[in-house]
Design goal:
Radius of gyration: 42 Å
Number of helices: 74
Number of strands: 2
Strand order of the largest sheet: 1-2
Shape: globular
């Protein structure tokens, strides 16, 4: 059996033998010839040339042997399997590589052992020749040299020779290989001695030259982006470079990337702050605020030398967010930890501790300013009780955060307390200690029973530090609600002692002396049988709060006081009180627990109260009690649901548990009460619960109402609740809420009514408003979710819209309705049908036939209300049988009759003869509404406002609305009475029941038909309406009035009518739960309708905001300047505020976001906004939109506050003003924020950018805000970019998504200079990361626009000064965002750029250097003779083989930006392919040997060239095309001669 010898071994042996023979002979010859004066070529080259040829032949033969030697069973042989075939295909190149590595290893081993410089140079020459002729991959040679263990500075000849070889052949290595070589060179640099002798300098120089070549941008061996990434990964602190001799080279290279990092950084980002909303954030720009959960650093893309402040942790941002009320959702999003992940966040824990400590200082200052001292010595009864404007502790919301974060395991309670202990002990301050104990007590009271005793031991250590007194503290004044906070430390000790007792743990510590008096006081309360409660008219007494707080974990002492509290609000059936309605009574308790008392209770006590109330409600529902729930219980329950720390047992249990149980029990009185409570008392419920409630209501409404008694009243209540839920959806809540549900044809959607056209129309209007305000109306997902919802709505309730409404709709909605028309009512047919049915009514005598015929009409033509209108018009009465028909019809079907009645009224009013007929019609409708109670005014007005009427019919419809609202006195009287006698601040009231009853006694409400039948005595059983706890006709009409105003705004001909309505009924907005939000949405959505109507805008402001002036302190919303404008006469509307007005407005927002008390104190738990920042932003936007000025003027003045007035801004606050202006522009309509685009164009057209001179400021310096501020230079350009950054950072995706269109339509046409392009990169570069996370297609659009801009600038200027940073940005985009996704889009652009740019960008499209240089030779026409004008571009997509050629214009291109290595023009592919062919062996050999200090004759060169041209083994076969090869080989002689 013949054993085949390994080709690698054969190669090693042959090369070893040949080199040993040559070197042995040459040693003697060297000794002799060095004594003679001979030509250099005679000394060296005859043997070198032949040796190179021999070695080349050895390698080529070994390669052929390796590729041909395949195992048995290979492809084409018997028994070959697919797997074996595949293995064989891949084994050829691998075997060849092994052969090459083996041969090179032999040569390197010989080289490293050489002590003779001549022989070392000889081996180096052969290695270089093998690389340049592509016999062996240059990468193999470089890596083998760098990995050799003998490559150390002590081996000087090997060290210097190796790096000389690498320098000469590295140009043939692909960029990935160059990156490896660079890292290995950095590793080798560490071996150099730090203290160099003069004789060692050449060692450093050898390495330095290789590194310089790699770093040379003109050589373009490797994208500079890769180099800086590697350097910053290895040396992130820019220090500890591998050797001091390389420090300047490395530092300079990294510093050159600071410009690219500047173009990719949001200006003043560390000072930008968001507005914290109830439900997280108002736009998807939340991605821009995300921090790393471990380090709290910005999530920056790429390892670039960003400015130090961007690379630092951002704890101040997290603390700012946590400092606002209702920050939970946003905190979880910012630290980027899903709530379900249960991952502890140490950074969050640390910042919560910092926030607590700073809050304690704030609280102590507030206490000191109000004259209240903490328990460190406060006198017993010297404090005055708080007024009715009580507000909780300023750090109270921290307890909610603490509970929430511990529950979802983001923080550890013991660890947090230990951090507090260490920090406060180090400070040595006891300020605000009672506030801290109160915060800790909230968590501890509710969790100590479920956790280990050891978890709470740190609290004892903290108490020891904070209460070091040796004397007992006095007992606080129990008539002051702050007494609960002052005794919280004692309550904590009571809970811990009880826990130790329950776990049989002996506590080594006795009770501290400082709490002796507190303990004795609590003991006396526990054994006191008399527990005084806070009741109306009696002095405040909080002893029961102290008792339950201390003993909530001790059932022996807790049950009695907590049951006392529960019983005080539950009442009993022995004592009842009347309720509005017929035969309605409720349990006798009417005074709820005050909010001050509830604030004085711990979380555990509140949970117990909520649990007791829930149990009581379910018990009453199961027993189907005829006596309604006590008013005090419902009011107290509503107040308890405000506390977010008990959300899971509060609002969640209410929605998920209590409502379904009550509904299943068919206890409609309780259901009605709970629905009323939610809609009139709950202010800040999370959107998921409101959406769930809306779904539940639609489910309830789908149940056959025949099973319900009092069905009309209950149906009216459910419709009112659904209407408020839909209109109350925030602009940032609609899309997430609706897309959370799947709208399929085979499943009934939960959020869309199956039969109420009005509710579905209101949902469409809400969607339109949301899309308009958020700007999500482009394409893709933002349009898809909307269309899906609309399709489902049209399936359930087909309808159309008037043209004046469609004109206001966003494009996606208006297009849908144009494409999906629905049938409309024929008015002529309607008139005839009503007349026909009326004749039937008058002719029919049998009561059963009448009831049967007309009660089933809704299935075909619901005309019965039209008949009732004619009955009352003709006879001024409603026959008793008509009520029976209405009862049979039911409230759900009656809605269809109301719609037909509205159309019929428009028809009748349109055809009326004159004023008397109109008056008669109004009186008839007034009787139907108020006398006969057939149709409630709010339902009729809602239906009228939402009907589709065009042209004159629309005018008539609005005219009818105005007449029915204002001509009869019934509604106006009720509104005036209700507004005069009541206040919307229900949380401050304990007598709501009395005022509520007084109004209903004066204006009782009846619900047809049951109420009328009960009065007529036709009902057999005793009739009982549902008890009304909060609502009345005025409150039910308020959301309808919102819709009516919007419908009037759509038709400019009726604007005067609207002003009249606002003048008469606008006072009702005193009770609007979101007045500023409503006004903001109105001004935003109808901006183009109101732009030329300053009087109407002023009337809206007066109606909505000024109606609040009785209950709100001055300055709560509008500025003094605007209030003075409102006080002017009605005809005096001309006002163009000066710049000082806008400056004051922005300053108010800045101060508010800094935490300064700008606005009067507000109880945020019952406010429409979550915090002062959101309030300030919205009232400022409302005021700006209400100005009688063009949007462009207003927006320009806003920008001028900074661009013209930045000198007047306090030092260090410019960035905060930039943040404020950006926020304002983000929240304003499109005509306002488009001014930002105009200012950008103005900036680009400035002479310093559009036509820069030699004295013009560098654009990077011009846009460095921090540097300019320190030097007191002109900030206008930097501030313009900073304002654009602030605007886009805060912007909704609809706003920031306009960037590509802006670049294409406005920026690209006017770009002419490189400076303008640099500014453009500064503008859009920072937002690529946001595009990438929200919609990747936008990244592609922006990137393509940048390439187009570069192409245009390249054609416009002769010299490019900033192409390196611009190219760095483009590489950043490729490797961080786009990859090869847009390669085909930009490849053509890059090929059209100047050669210097092509060289720098060649790795993006995998261009070869030879194709770039040939292209440059044909385009620059430098006068050098070129061998061909054919296109030599090599497309790397079609060939993976590198084409290694020498350009014919090599000798004349030295003035270009390319740095060609002398004598070696080896090119590389931008892809990872290995180096391929050569330009011709002769030229390559000549160039290589020449650089090693040798020469060769032309003749030998041409002979070698001829030999190579006919031998495929010499690499000719790998050229791209035969014609290109021929032309290139013809150019060999001129190149070698030169």
């Amino acid at each position: 059996m013949i054993v085949m010898e390994d080709p690698s071994t054969v190669t090693e042996n042959r090369i070893n033998e040949r080199l040993l023979d040559i070197l042995k002979g040459d040693a003697l010859r060297e000794a002799l010839v060095n004594l003679l004066v001979l030509p250099k070529s005679e000394k060296e080259y005859p043997p070198l040339t032949s040796v190179c040829a021999e070695l080349q032949k050895i390698f080529n033969e070994a390669s052929l042997d390796a590729s041909s030697s395949t195992p048995a069973g290979q492809d084409g042989q018997p028994g070959a399997t697919p797997k074996a075939t595949e293995t064989a295909k891949s084994s050829g190149p691998e075997a060849m590589t092994r052969v090459h590595e083996a041969g090179i290893t032999t040569m390197v081993v010989m080289l490293r052992s050489e002590n003779n410089s001549y022989r070392a140079k000889f081996i180096a020459s052969t290695l270089t020749h093998l690389a340049t002729t592509n016999t062996v991959s240059p990468k193999v040679i470089c890596l083998r040299l760098l990995t050799d263990e003998m490559l150390v500075p002590d081996n000087e000849i090997f060290w210097v020779t190796s790096f000389a070889i690498i320098k000469k052949v590295i140009t043939g290595v692909d960029y990935k290989g160059v990156r490896e070589i660079m890292k290995m060179c950095l590793d080798r640099a560490r071996q150099l001695p730090s203290n160099l002798r003069r004789s060692q300098l050449h060692l450093v120089d050898a390495l330095y030259e290789v590194m310089s070549l790699i770093f040379d941008r003109n050589a373009s061996l490797l994208p500079g982006y890769f180099i800086v990434n590697e350097l910053l990964k290895l040396y992130p602190d820019y220090k500890h470079w591998p050797h001091w001799k390389l420090a300047s080279l490395l530092t300079d290279f990294v510093d050159k990337f600071r410009r690219a990092a500047q173009m990719l950084s949001i200006m003043a980002r560390t000072k930008l702050r968001p507005i914290v909303e109830h439900t997280g954030h108002n736009s998807p720009s939340i991605n821009s605020w995300k921090l790393d959960s471990v380090s709290l650093k910005f999530q920056l893309k790429g390892a670039l030398p960003y400015s130090p402040e961007l690379l630092e942790p951002q704890p101040s941002l997290l603390r700012y967010i946590m400092r606002q009320p209702y920050p939970r959702e946003m905190v979880c999003t910012v630290i980027d930890i899903p709530k379900k992940q249960k991952q502890r966040c140490i950074a969050l824990e640390e910042q919560l501790v910092e926030l607590m400590v700073s809050a304690l200082e704030d609280c102590s200052r507030v206490d000191a300013s109000s004259g209240v001292s903490s328990s460190n010595g406060s006198g017993g009864n010297n404090s005055t009780p708080t007024s009715g404007d009580h507000s909780p502790c300023t750090c109270a919301h921290l307890s909610s955060l603490l509970i929430y974060f511990v529950l979802i395991q983001l923080i550890s309670f013991p660890s947090l307390v230990l951090r507090l202990h260490d920090k406060l002990k180090a400070k040595g301050s006891h300020q605000g200690r009672d506030h801290l104990m109160w915060v800790l007590l909230q968590f501890l009271s509710g969790s100590i029973q479920k956790n280990q005793f050891s978890d709470f031991l740190p609290v004892l250590r903290l108490i020891e530090v904070l209460y070091p007194e040796k004397e007992p503290l006095p007992v606080p004044d129990y008539t002051d609600p702050r007494c609960a906070m002052q005794m919280s430390a004692m309550c904590i000790l009571m809970h811990i002692l009880k826990k130790a007792q329950a776990d049989n743990i002996k506590t080594p510590r006795s009770l501290p002396t400082v709490f002796k008096n507190h303990h004795e006081f609590l003991q006396s309360l526990a054994h006191n049988p008399q527990l005084p409660l806070i009741t109306a008219g009696n002095p405040a007494d909080y002893r029961i709060a102290l008792l339950v707080n201390a003993y909530s974990t001790n059932q022996e002492y807790f049950q009695r006081p907590v049951l006392t509290l529960s019983d005080s609000i539950q009442g009993n059936q022995k004592s009842t009180v009347p309720m509005p309605g017929i035969n309605c009574v409720a349990m006798g308790s009417t005074s709820p627990l005050s909010i001050t008392l509830l604030d004085s209770l711990t979380v555990h006590v509140k949970m117990s109260l909520v649990h007791n109330i829930g149990q009581h409600i379910q018990k009453q529902a199961q027993h189907k009690s005829a006596v309604a729930l006590a008013p005090a219980l419902i009011e107290t329950y509503a107040r308890l649901l405000v506390y977010t720390e008990i959300e899971s047992i509060g609002i969640k249990t209410f929605i998920v548990n209590h409502l379904p149980v009550v509904f299943k029990s068919h206890v409609w009185s309780i259901l009605h009460a709970l629905l009323e409570m939610f809609i009139h008392r709950i202010h800040h419920s999370p959107p998921q619960y409101r959406i769930q409630l809306l779904s539940t209501i639609h489910h309830m409404a789908a149940v056959p109402l025949s099973t319900m008694t009092q069905m009309t009243q209950l149906h009216l209540c459910m419709e009112s609740v659904a209407l408020r839920l839909i209109t109350g959806l925030g602009n940032a809540e609609v899309m997430p809420s609706l897309t959370r549900f799947t709208f399929c044809s085979d499943t009934k959607p939960n959020l869309i009514s199956s039969d109420s056209e009005e509710l579905n129309r209101v949902l469409v209007l809400t969607m339109a408003r949301t899309i308009h305000v958020t700007g999500c109306d482009s394409s893709g997902d933002s349009a898809r979710w909307c269309v899906d919802v609309l399709k489902t709505i049209m399936t359930q309730t087909p309808h159309t819209w008037a043209n004046h409404t469609l004109q206001c709709f966003p494009t996606v909605i208006s297009d849908f309705y144009h494409q999906c028309p629905a049938p409309r009512e024929n008015m002529h047919t309607l008139k005839k049908a009503v007349e026909e049915e009326y004749r039937k009514w008058k002719s029919m005598n049998n009561e059963n036939d009448i009831i049967t015929h007309f009660s089933l009409q809704h299935n075909t033509s619901p005309l019965f209300l039209c008949l009732l209108f004619k009955m009352v018009l003709d006879t001024d009465r409603v026959p008793p049988i008509a009520y029976k028909v209405l009862e049979r019809v039911g409230p759900r079907q009656l809605a269809a009759h109301v719609r037909t009645l509205c159309d019929f009224l428009v028809l009748e009013f349109s055809n009326s003869a004159g004023g008397q007929h109109v008056t008669k019609y109004v009186e008839t409708m007034n009787a139907i509404i108020w006398v006969y109670n057939i149709v409630p005014i709010d339902r009729l007005m809602l239906c009228l406002a939402l009907r589709t009427q065009e042209g004159s019919e629309a005018h008539v419809c609005f005219f009818i609305i105005q007449l029915l609202l204002l001509k009869p006195p019934e509604l106006r009287n009720r509104v005036q009475e209700f507004v005069k006698e009541n206040s919307p601040d229900h949380w401050r009231q304990n007598n709501w029941y009395e005022k509520h009853m007084a109004f209903h006694r004066k204006y009782p409400e009846k619900f047809s038909p049951e109420s009328i039948l009960a009065e007529q005595g036709t009902l057999t059983a005793q009739y009982q309406t549902l008890p009304i706890y909060f609502s009345n006709v005025c409150l039910r009409f308020l959301p309808v009035l919102d819709i009516i105003i919007h419908r009037f705004l759509e038709l400019h001909q009726v604007h005067k009518n609207l002003e009249t309505i606002l003048e008469r009924l606008g006072i009702l907005y005193k009770f609007h739960d979101r007045p500023i939000t409503y006004l903001y949405n109105t001004f935003h959505y109808y901006e183009n309708k109101l732009r030329e109507r300053p009087n109407l805008k002023r009337r809206l402001v007066v109606a909505v905001i000024m109606s609040q002036q009785e209950i709100r302190p001055q300055g709560w919303a509008l500025t003094e300047a605007y209030r003075q404008y409102l006080a002017r006469p009605q005809e005096d509307i001309a006002w163009n505020p000066a710049l000082s007005y806008y400056t004051a407005l922005v300053r108010r927002l800045v101060n508010t976001m800094q935490g300064k008390p700008v606005f009067p104190a507000v109880e945020w738990r019952f406010n429409e906004f979550a915090n002062s920042g959101a309030h300030a932003l919205h009232v400022s936007c409302v005021e700006l939109m209400a100005l009688p000025s063009n949007p462009t003027i207003v927006a320009n003045k806003l920008l001028d506050v900074l661009l013209k007035g930045y000198c007047d801004i306090p030092n260090g606050e410019v960035e905060e003003w930039v943040n404020a202006v950006g926020l304002l522009l983000t929240c304003l309509p499109e005509p306002y924020w488009l001014v930002v685009h105009d200012r950008i164009i103005e900036l680009l057209q400035k002479p310093c950018l559009a036509s820069p001179s030699s004295t013009s400021m560098d654009p990077f310096t011009m846009l460095n805000l921090e540097q300019l501020q320190s030097s007191r230079s002109d900030l206008s350009a930097a501030l313009t970019v900073a304002l654009a950054h602030s605007f886009w950072h805060h912007a909704s995706f609809g706003q920031v998504g306009r960037i590509p269109q802006f670049m294409r339509d406005r920026v690209r046409p006017m770009l002419t200079t490189e400076e303008q392009l640099v500014v453009l990169c500064h503008l859009v570069g920072p937002f690529l990361q946001r595009f990438n996370s929200e919609l990747a297609r936008k990244v592609f659009d922006v990137t393509i626009e940048l390439y187009e801009a570069l192409f245009k600038v390249d054609r416009s200027v002769s010299e490019l000064k900033y192409m390196d940073p611009i190219c760095d940005v483009l590489y950043h985009i490729k490797y961080m965002f786009t990859g090869d996704s847009i390669k085909t889009d930009v490849e053509g652009i890059i090929r059209g750029l100047r050669p210097a740019l092509q060289r720098r960008l060649r790795f993006i499209t995998h261009l070869n250097l030879d194709s770039i240089e040939n292209t440059s030779g044909s385009t620059t026409n430098s006068g050098t003779t070129t061998g061909t004008t054919s296109n030599t571009t090599v497309n790397s997509n079609t060939s993976n083989t590198n084409t290694n050629t020498t350009s014919a214009t090599n000798s004349t291109s030295s003035n270009s930006a390319t740095g060609t290595i002398p004598g070696n023009t080896t090119a590389q592919s931008g892809s990872g392919a290995t180096t391929g062919s050569v330009l011709g062996a002769a030229a390559s050999a000549l160039g290589t040997l020449g650089t090693l200090g040798s020469s060769v004759t032309i003749g030998s060169s041409s002979q070698t060239s001829a030999g190579v041209s006919t031998s495929s083994s010499m690499g000719v076969g790998s050229l791209a095309a035969a014609s290109s090869l021929a032309s290139l080989l013809q150019d060999t002689s001129p190149v070698s001669t030169s």
